[in-house]
Specification:
312 residues; alpha+beta; six-stranded mixed beta sheet
Amino acid sequence: MDVVTGLLDGPRARDAFLLRSHLRAPWGMRIEDEAPLTIVPVLRGSAWVGPVGSADDGGTTVEAGDVVLLRGPEHYVVADSSATAPTVVVGPSDVCRAIDGGPSPMTVFGVRSWGNDLDGETVIITGTYPLDGAVGRRLLHVLPHRVVLRRGDVDPTLVDLLAREVVQDLPGQEAVLDRLLDLLLITCLRAWLDHPHGPGWYRADADPAVGVALRLIHHDPARPWSVASLAREVGLSRAAFARRFTDLVGEPPMTYLTGWRLDLAADMLLADDGATLASVARAVGYASPFALSAAFKRVRGVSPAEHRRRTA
């Protein structure tokens, strides 16, 4: 497993919220669902996306063909322009209400489709990941609050396919939409990672020594790795390898290894209710359940059992 596959394999849609919105100006929505990650492709027209309560602080205008990634839990506004005040608020569980307490200006047009005018000049899709896994959280932590990918950065065929499928109501449709959303997300993330501001571990994956070490860690996290053993695998001295890894990745090799193991353990504990602490410890390279529990508590601030209870 290469480092990019390992870290992009985190956010995985399950019963994701998807909605196609048909909008005519003026319109504005304040989003307070606090979802970990949301994707907004613009199919037609334009929109303004920015923080709540500020038209001037970091907002962005997006056009047809652009895709926006929004990292939660911060609230944000989507409107026809920065000057338009939101008239509806979307809260947790995707509950929508009018801000002034009156009737909502939005109408349901059909399957996963709503808006204030079916023939409006702007059409957008909203795809929301309600939960994030721990491995995905490593990726979410390096994303800024808002990523804008312009027309040409993302394959328009994927966006068009999602736009067609989102309003379908066929057998297995939820699974189809989840997979399409995942594919669009991975495509968007790869496009963003290719930019110069991408995180160090992504650039490090191309390094002939550090990239190999990252793949070894990801492929076999249970192996008793050390700085010396990783250095031998990539043909460098211990000191040279440690320095090069830290410079490129942004953290020392053993810190990265510990974080990766614990993120994998956190995901395993949630993915399988029958997984025991002992089986998870063996899978991620800890000699005993006690050793895993101690490391988990030290790094993440909660015990594995508490992590399981809180997420549930």
